[in-house]
């Protein structure tokens, strides 16, 4: 009777909320979902919404391709117009039709001039003077020189060749074979090509991040994403800075799992079922099979696809705010009591810094409560038994 009363008191009056526990139970997480701090009754609460992991949501999350670099910098159609810059080394070859010209002799009808574009953007050519090279294409420079020689040389012609491009350098540093100033050639070069010139990455693509800095713009993306999504392999521009860093992707698993810890991916991809298995799975005696949760800051495009624009706007009005890179909090729930969870769980990707929480079953708290209330009863029973013996 005492044990039955304890269960009724726990379940009906208090819901075992006063019992010591390891994090919230499923009902607590579900109860707070979609509410503002005012509705919950707690200030400074982070509003979030819950999405069930099913065939549709798993497909949307899996199919989403991050395009951080493409959105910010644009892939472009190549290098565009390549112009001469300060510090560039040029070879100017001047041809003349006669052997008695300014630049020709009986032995040769051409002269080669090696030039370096000076800080003011100019370089000197005999009988022409100071010529402005900076900001001009090779053809424009050729035409400028040719025009100046028409009334001075014998039927002149000119070729301007780029020997080195100090003005077209890209800085590549970090976790690469050798940090270097990489000169760009006259055709389009992408991030992957420039990193290869610097010796390539020193770590696996799935744990290597690439940061592109261009002026006041900065974008960071996983090297794996650049390889798998060609639109992220953007063309670099002179003056760009590329930083390559090794940052192993990890997730954290907490709650009624056999191990609570942070775990490295150690692979190209990890799905939700694999992540749970890497922690030893859920505790058979404690886990709520309906309460596997993934706490994540998600891309706004994904959230709007899952919730719809109207619901997303409602959550913003409730105080849902992004993190430093524009992602919003969301919680995914996997109900492992459903047979198809073993299928959809294979297609739901875990992302770096995810927190996977295995909720404990409500019966665990009831058991704890019975243990707590049973201790003094046991002591009292022992005293009575001793008294009877006397």
TrEMBL record:
Subcellular location: Cell outer membrane
Gene3D superfamilies: Outer membrane lipoprotein wza domain like (3.10.560.10), wza like domain (3.30.1950.10)
GO MF terms, alphabetically ordered: polysaccharide transmembrane transporter activity; porin activity
Top-level taxon of origin: Bacteria
PROSITE patterns for this protein: PROKAR_LIPOPROTEIN
Gene Ontology biological process terms in this record: monoatomic ion transport
GO cellular component: cell outer membrane; pore complex
Membrane topology: Multi-pass membrane protein
Sequence ranges assigned to domain SLBB in this UniProt record: 169-244
Residue stretches making up the Polysaccharide export protein N-terminal domain: 81-161
Alphabetical UniProt keywords: Cell outer membrane, Ion transport, Lipoprotein, Membrane, Palmitate, Polysaccharide transport, Porin, Signal, Sugar transport, Transmembrane, Transmembrane beta strand, Transport
Entry's family note: Belongs to the BexD/CtrA/VexA family.
Protein name, per record: Capsule biosynthesis protein
């Amino acid at each position: 009777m005492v044990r039955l009363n304890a269960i009724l008191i726990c379940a009906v009056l208090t819901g075992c909320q006063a019992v010591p526990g390891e994090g919230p139970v499923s009902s607590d997480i579900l109860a707070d979902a979609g509410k503002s701090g005012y509705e919950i009754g707690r200030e400074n609460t982070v509003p979030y919404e819950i999405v069930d992991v099913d065939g549709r949501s798993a497909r949307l999350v899996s199919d989403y391709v991050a395009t951080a670099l493409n959105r910010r910098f644009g892939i472009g159609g190549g290098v565009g117009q390549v112009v001469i810059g300060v510090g560039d080394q040029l070879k100017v070859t001047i041809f003349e039709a006669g052997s008695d010209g300014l630049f020709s002799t009986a032995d040769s009808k051409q002269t080669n001039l090696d030039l370096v574009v000076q800080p003011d953007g100019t370089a000197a050519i005999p009988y022409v003077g100071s010529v402005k090279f900076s900001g001009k294409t090779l053809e424009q420079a050729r035409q400028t020189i040719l025009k100046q020689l028409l009334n001075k040389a014998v039927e002149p012609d000119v070729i301007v060749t780029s020997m080195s491009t100090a003005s077209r350098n890209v800085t590549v540093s970090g976790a690469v074979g050798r940090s270097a100033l990489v000169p760009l050639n006259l055709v389009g070069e992408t991030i992957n090509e420039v990193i290869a010139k610097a010796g390539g990455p020193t770590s696996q693509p799935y744990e290597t991040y690439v940061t592109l800095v261009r002026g006041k713009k900065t974008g960071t993306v996983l090297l794996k994403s650049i390889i798998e999504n060609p639109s992220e392999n953007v063309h670099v521009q002179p003056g760009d800075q590329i930083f390559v860093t090794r940052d192993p992707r990890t997730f954290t698993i907490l709650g009624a799992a056999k191990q609570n810890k942070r775990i490295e991916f150690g692979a190209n991809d990890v799905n939700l079922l694999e992540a749970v298995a890497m922690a030893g799975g859920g505790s058979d005696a404690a886990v709520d099979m309906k309460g596997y949760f993934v706490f994540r800051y998600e891309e706004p495009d994904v959230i709007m696809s899952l919730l719809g624009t109207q619901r997303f706007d409602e959550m913003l009005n409730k105080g849902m705010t992004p993190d430093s890179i524009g992602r919003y909090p969301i919680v995914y729930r996997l109900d492992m009591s459903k047979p198809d969870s073993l299928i959809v769980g294979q297609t739901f990707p875990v992302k770096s810094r995810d927190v996977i929480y295995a909720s404990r079953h409500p019966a665990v708290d009831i058991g704890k409560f019975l243990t707590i209330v049973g201790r003094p009863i046991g002591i009292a029973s022992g005293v009575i038994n001793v008294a009877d013996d006397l």
